Amino acid sequence: DRVFKIVLAGDAAVGKSSFIMRLCKNKFVTNLNSTVGVDFQTKTLKVDGKIIALQLWDTAGQERFRSIAKSYFRRADGVLLLYDVTYEKSFLNVRDWIEIIKDGTQKYIPVMIVGNKCDLREDRRIKDVCLKYEDGHNLASNVDCLFVETSAKSGSNINEAIIELTRFAHHML
Ligand code: GDP
């Protein structure tokens, strides 16, 4: 009987829409192109025997507009902060995102940092330039966030990420 609002944050093209698509529709589409008009998707989950209704808010297009992004975080029960493991810039921007998330509100918001596109490590040509699991894990422990690596493409860890964040946020209430 409780609705959890989860907001997805992170640079453009890290896979926020794909993450939501995988979670809610169990699909991966290469050319998602802004699904205009939809603010959020819903998903119900069973966590520790309780049914939890999730609202997943995408900040698509708001990456450059901090003031709009902030208003999303203000009403969030939890944030999934994505970066792309093949794109260092998106990883370096994680700290900025955390500032923006904290800036919008006085209340504590659980944040899970998510290294997405980890399926691309399977590609030998890319493997060496990819961020390592430890990179993300170390950053997350420095900034006191949860951490997971996912692939919206393969579906790896997508459900697990949401369950862990929801469980954590639930205990924070
Ligand atoms: P957003 O701008 O953060 O919402 O990112 P999108 O969901 O639109 O994804 C950007 C691009 O990355 C698209 O071409 C996706 O198909 C691709 N992408 C997203 N997630 C993954 C993933 O887990 N693995 C791979 N290989 N590609 C992904």
TrEMBL record:
Matches recorded under PROSITE patterns: RAB (PS51419), RAS (PS51421), RHO (PS51420)
Predominant subcellular localization, coarse grouping: cytoplasm
CDD domains: Rab
Gene Ontology, cellular component aspect: cytoplasm
Entry's Gene Ontology molecular function annotations: GTP binding; GTPase activity
Pfam families: Ras
Record-given protein name: SOCS box domain-containing protein
GO biological process entries: vesicle-mediated transport
Subcellular location(s) per record: Cytoplasm
InterPro entries: P-loop_NTPase, Rab, Small_GTP-bd, Small_GTPase
Gene3D superfamilies attached to this UniProt entry: P-loop containing nucleotide triphosphate hydrolases
Record keywords: Coiled coil, Cytoplasm, GTP-binding, Nucleotide-binding
Keyword Aminoacyl-tRNA synthetase attributed: no
